[in-house]
Structures are given as structure tokens and as C-alpha cells.
């Protein structure tokens, strides 16, 4: 195994080591990191690092530091670094403890509850009369809802007996949504008109609204509370600095 301080290349006196290569790989996201950790990827990355250092060496040779574009870019980079370092210091020390998170969870139950969901089937046809005829056949026991959907529905869901699976309020067009969520369980609705045609709806399962467990949302709440604290500190400081430095 190669030592981490093994010199892989030297460019104008600058040694490019195994440690530098590994540190560069660590900066990539996981999918890129896996590629550049391979032998081929490492070779490609090393070539890129060498090329960058070659251009940097040439830049020093031609005195690029005196170039106007270079100076402008360096000034902007310095501002960006100063801003980021200052913001990091301003926000240091801010934290959210478990008591704050739990208190927020307990006092805002509606913010975390999952709305009511239903599971339903439907049959889509082009006229109210046809829908009423099919409804009568189903209620008379001449055919099941699923069989009628496969035979008559113009919706692709006909292949699964009209099954739309489980969905929450607002997932469907308003007329369908209202009818479905007010329909009694396992009954066939009256024909419902939408922009698509006429629907017969059968709701076969209903799940009431419920709040997720605290542990499931704890990290999300903590993150949002921390952002709120950061924004409050930022806003307060900016207002103070405007009074101190800003001249209209």
C-alpha cells in the first residue's frame, strides 16, 4: 500500500502527493467519489490537478497578478470569504434543544398531521345515462364493480378494475375529490360529472388524519427552528448595522 505522502507528480517544484489526491476525492459527492476512487478515476483526476498547476505556474510566469481581471476576481473572492467567515461566526453558538423541539411539536399538531386518505375505484364513461345503467347492474349484483370497470371504463385504470389506489384530498379534480371524500364506504356513488366525463366511484378504504410520531419529524423540526433563529439573528444584526454604517 502506498504511503499517503508518496509524491505522485511534481510541477514547477510543487509536489502533488497521494494525500492531496485523496483529499481532493473526498470533496466530491458520493457518486463522483466512487468513480474517482478507482484506478482509472485517480489517474484522470491526477492529470486534471497537474493541468491546473501547469496553468497556475504559467500565470505566475507571465505576472498574471497585475492583470485587471485577476485583481477584480481576487477582490470579489476576498469579499465572499470574509462574508462567509463572518456569517459562520455570527451563527456560531445557535442551537435548538430537544425541549424546544418537543414543545413546538406538541403545540402545533395540525402542522404535522397527515390528512385523511382514501382508496377508491372508479368507472369513467361518456354519458350520465350509461353511468346510471352500470350503477344499477352493480347494485343488482349482476356484475362486480371491478368487472364493470374492465368492460366499460375509458380510463387506463380499467386494467386494474378501476383501482386508483390510495390518495389524499386535492389529488383529483375538485368534483371527483368532493364526491369521493364524502362517499360512504363500499357503496357506488351517483354519477359524478368532471371534465373527463361521468364517474362512478366506490371507496373501499378510508384512513383518518393522523399525526406522525415525534421521532419521525424531530430532525425536520429542529432544522426549521434553527433556521428561524438564524434568520432572526441575521435580521436583527443587519438592522443594527444599517443604523451604524448605512448612509442614505
Q: Report the top-level CATH class of the largest domain.
A: Alpha Beta
Q: Count of helical segments?
A: 10
Order of SSEs: EEHHHHHHEHHEHEEH
Mean pLDDT, nearest integer? 93
Biggest sheet, strands in spatial order? 4-3-6-5
- In whole angstroms, the N-to-C terminal distance is 64 Å
- State the major sheet: 4 strands, antiparallel
Low-confidence stretches: none
Number of domains: 3
The percentage helix is 55-70%
Overall outline: elongated
Query: What oligomeric assembly is this protein in?
Result: single chain
Second rung of CATH, namely the architecture of the largest domain: Roll
**CATH fold description of the largest domain:** Chitinase A, domain 3
Q: How many β-strand stretches?
A: 6
Strand percentage: 15-25%
**Structural class label:** alpha+beta
Cα-atom radius of gyration: 32 Å
What does this structure look like?
There is one protein chain. By secondary structure, the chain is α+β, with helices and mostly antiparallel strands. It folds into three domains: 1-65, no CATH class; 67-113 and 223-248, no CATH class; 114-207, Chitinase A, domain 3. It contains ten helices and six strands; from the N terminus they run ββααααααβααβαββα. The protein has helices at residues 18-26, 30-36, 39-61, 68-91, 98-107, 109-112, 128-139, 145-152, 174-182, 214-245, and strands spanning 7-11, 14-17, 117-125, 163-168, 192-194, 197-207. A four-stranded antiparallel sheet has the order 4-3-6-5, with helices on both faces. A hairpin with a 2-residue loop joins β5 (192-194) and β6 (197-207). The radius of gyration is 32 Å and the shape is elongated.
